[in-house]
Amino acid sequence: MNNSSLRPRAEVAPLLIAVVLAVFLLFVGGAAHIVILSLLLSYILDPVATVLEARGMSRTLATVIIMLGLGSLIVVGSVVLIPAIFEHLQTLQSGSTTAQAAAAINDLERFARDKFSFLGFGDINLGERIGELRQQVGERAIAFLFSDAASLIINAVTIPFMMFFFIKDGREMKKRVVSMVPNRYFEFTLDLLSKMDMQLGNYLRGQFLDAVIFGAMAVVALWILGVNYFVFLGVFAGLANLIPYVGAIAGVVPAALVAVLGSGNLSAAVPVIIAYVVLKMLDDFVVQPFAVASSVHMHPVLVLIAIMVGGELFGILGMLLAVPVAGFFKVVLQEGVSTYRKYRFT
Amino acid sequence: MTDFRARVFGYKRASQANANAFAVLEKIPIFQDLSRRELASIERILHRREYVPDEVIIRQDEPGLGMYIIEAGKAAVLSEPDKVRLSDLTDGDFFGEVSLLAESPRSATVAATTHCRVLGFFQSDLFSLIERDPRLGVKIVVRVAKIIGDRLRKANQQLLSVSDELRRTRQGTHPA
Q: Of B49, B54, B124, which has the smallest distance from its Cβ to A186's Cβ?
């Protein structure tokens, strides 16, 4: 009755998964972020397909409607945003400095010389540095947009293509994977997958919703305060908010800088910072308790390591995806161990 | 062309295996009187597994995730730790249906006695079915509840008759 000798040992399974993942990330690194992003987006949108199915639609029709909706959003966003992005980047690259910005830079220089001369800021030339920096940023951003236009287009096609099949056939794919598991570990695998699905689904959808709400609130707040580039800065703040601890600071710094350079007055940073503090409090006490049904508590050191590894592997996108992906592995490990203990594997 | 359409639009032509599963499902009280479309929805979420003789299908005290239906073959219900044989199961028999509604530890071990083909129907799949097809999901839940209710009623009757017998035996042993 005992067939355990014929089955792969449970201890080997996590190792095998780790090896496969490592090989996948190392050798197919270029494609991995596309797959991860497609999977995450499909996972977030899956309940929409289920709601449409409950209204009598087939899964295929529900998926088509979701993809059409997403496509419309992308097209409208591109038509509105791309010309604006180019315009902003060209302004940035041309190096034209307004009188207000020059005044703000002078203020900053004086402040640094007076207060921080002991740190070597006595002979600082902030205007020249900022000029060089924005020239570099503008050049690099335009070069990136042109040189990577092909890969951007490929991503814009492959991600929705993968998403379509992940949403439409996700259940069938999961069933096929489970069908390959040996009988002894079949129920364990099913149990683990359903628990992970519940925990991760709530976590990822909650994070996504929170990022969207925070981003929208930031856009509105910056618009009211009259800060330039309020759409980009707000969207960036929403995305940065996905990163615990450092996300809030990463969101506020560029907005405060733009406000100072735009008005030529250091005090212009104050309302921006106050607005972000208020938004963060609203987010922590009002939005998150409603939007984020379950959180995956992670140690700050683990978060930092995940962000560094994500950044190293996939750049800024990797940094944004690092926390959800680390959360995924944490849930897999936690649920894997607790579910494993309920089964009498020998 | 049909194959292409089936691949793109995701519907399947009824294969021999599907037809067998339909025939088995129609005999199970939980799925009786369901339409062809509803049976197809159920069939899509079932997990097909095969077991060799003496291989354990479910183990006593391990978490119960759902029910199994024997499509073909024979199995035995065993009580641990002595593996006392409680009953035999054959084509069309099902077990573990209580786990569809409540995740509770398995009350006995079931092991295949011949080569066995089974269909697994699990709680997570039932809950997902309820979300996307509430009408069918509720039908299934009501039928499972009815089966459990019938079993409870039978168990109560058996308990009553055993306690009556016990009382009569006591009265016989210790006459008033």
A: B49
